[in-house]
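== Sequence, structure tokens ==
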Amino acid sequence: MQNVTTISEVRQILCEVRQSGKTIGCVPTMGALHEGHISLIKAAVEQSDFVVVTIFVNPTQFAPHEDLSKYPRPLERDLKLCTEAGASLVFHPSAEEMYAKDSQISVTVGSLADCWEGASRPGHFDGVATVVTKLFNVVQPDLAFFGAKDYQQQSIIRAMCRDLDIPVKIVTCPTIREESGLALSSRNVYLSDQEREIAIHISQALLRAKERYPDAAWSLEQLRKTLRQELNETAGLELDYATIVDPVTLQEVPEKQETMVALIAARVGTTRLIDNMELSLRS
């Protein structure tokens, strides 16, 4: 596996890869890799010939109240995991490499970023969209792999590629969960044993919503209300939002559809967690 830190190195290597006719898969990450990330790398290995993993803690997607400096950066461990998963190249640039000192141009996301995570973290998705556009410009992959856990993020990246005519196929891979049901996240390392027990209630509430959704006795309004109530009554959990939305527009609608998605964000202790689950009328 090759390990590089500059844009020029990436472009030189991938120029040769492209000339050989190989397809390129890209897995953008912020590092602190876990089994969820590894599943993305393995999917990229299966579906493309040459896999690029990017590791970059992007400063532009952190809100002023979020501590960028505390984000975990176990680079040596991450590189080892990338090698074991079959990555061909890891690109881990510095902030200075990715953003010029006088950088002025960025990507602005529209209404898809105004709700849910976007409302809770203003400017977050503009930062995500900007850095992913830059990484796609550097790598120019045929396919890019994202996890379903960050549902709003992958929805925005799909729309961005469509609207900006970026020729990258977005592949969304299933959320990887612990045996308890807790969705894997780099932030889980901040949870104490007691907090992990509380956090499990998030996935349990999603599963109950999924089971109830096909039942005609449960209206969409009742499902939303119950989802929020169950989490608001969970001691030690501070709910940010819990809802059920259209899977494309991410907006709440009045009636059930064939498929919808339940979204949750909550804080357990000092750790903010997000999760989601697709709901279907076909039980």
Summary: Strands lie at 2-4, 24-29, 50-55, 89-91, 143-147, 169-173, 237-245, 259-268, 271-280. The radius of gyration is 19 Å. The chain has a mean pLDDT of 96.
